[in-house]
């Protein structure tokens, strides 16, 4: 700007000088001699003035060049300063973010420790008394022959409170190690009761170690965690499992899940496509016919729990782990899963060990129908011998009169919507179903197996009728549920929220002698939860 003004000034000065010279040339002449002398004098004067103007112009041009150099230099300094300021601002922001992130962690010998969990005060109402705490036993909703089925139950509970700890350490930029432990208080030891002290014991939910290699895209996990077939919200990584948001600790019927010991290896390709395989602890659930003692062949299929277990329980005979393979994709819109489950069932009869195989296939989908506002999820599985992987806990296998195990065919599915009108509210609606097919046998007119139409159901609707008059094998269990969570405080001291859930559940039995009974259960849950971390 200054160089431009100087150039204008120089041009104006030259113009004035030129005008003065022209004025002198135009002055009147009185005589020849005087004219010659005057002309000579004027010429000398004009030449001197021109030389002076040239000298002034050269000086001004030098000054302009000097100012232009200073201006360019100052411009470079300003650009450099701006770049430095921007770099410093970015560094400060990164440091600030790291400080805020570190503020949520404890550091010990280079290991970052993150605490988690919540404290819960909850209530339960059921229209049919199950004598259950926060986890509903869907496959034991009583029929009308049970006197307590005509009574309701109301309970208060704090047992779903949870505590967790995540430890993380980086060997280098490529290799990351972590360990995770999560406990609640829904364990029911033989001494646990509600008479006075309510001394319920903690139980393991998840305890595992993990290693991740970024460059190779490999992820190893060993310990107890959600089964690989449980739906993830993104990829196949621990702590991204997506459960229905309800209060009932048994989740909605149709939801496929388990938490059990396993060894898992996962490979990812650019965090977009994932492939995992998991070897998981096997356990089998059985249905033994009420006429089992009349079968011509008796088999050994379980054992009384020994060291380290509660002797009131039994353990199934298993010698091959459950094998699960899962593929997942996060292409940019939604999350998609496909998995397969392989199982082996094991018993002994006729002085020989026998294996029978089962398993299933399943899918999972999560879609953000309205970004950050409305989410849809669906999951399901179909196969035989898969009952223990469903929330309704229907049996895996039954028995053939010849002693062999017979896996029961089943399909299960769950669908739901979660609406987030604001950051303080979550409103959800889910529906799920689990359905089994009969696996029926007869030997000399005696019914065996599961869902046999010759089983006696004649007393299922008569209060006080003997259990022998109500076999009532479950054919289908379905539920619809609605609920909300209101996060009424979110701030520097954590988060506090209140939730309510209503659910209607129906347990339908197979047809038998006397019909197909149905048991209906209406439940209402409330929950106050404080998340301090």
Helical stretch count? Answer: 2
Share of β-strand residues:
35-45%
Helix and strand string, N-terminal first? HHEEEEEEEEEEEEEEEEEEEEEEEE
CATH class of the largest domain: Mainly Beta
State the end-to-end distance: 59 Å
How would you describe this structure to a colleague?
It is a single chain. By secondary structure, the chain is α+β, with helices and mostly antiparallel strands. It folds into 2 domains: 2-97; 104-531, Porin (Beta Barrel). It has 2 helices and 24 strands. It has helices at residues 2-25, 32-103; strands at residues 106-108, 111-126, 153-157, 162-170, 175-187, 201-213, 218-226, 259-269, 273-280, 302-304, 314-316, 322-329, 335-349, 352-370, 374-384, 397-399, 405-407, 409-419, 425-436, 439-443, 446-450, 474-491, 494-509, 518-531. Strands 2-4-5-6-7-8-9-12-13-14-15-18-19-22-23-24 form a 16-stranded antiparallel barrel. It has a two-stranded antiparallel sheet with strand order 10-11. The protein has a two-stranded antiparallel ribbon with strand order 16-17. The longest helix has 72 residues, at 32-103. The two termini are 59 Å apart.
Descriptive keywords:
about 20% helix; 16-stranded antiparallel barrel; Porin; alpha+beta; about 525 residues; two-stranded antiparallel sheet; 2 domains
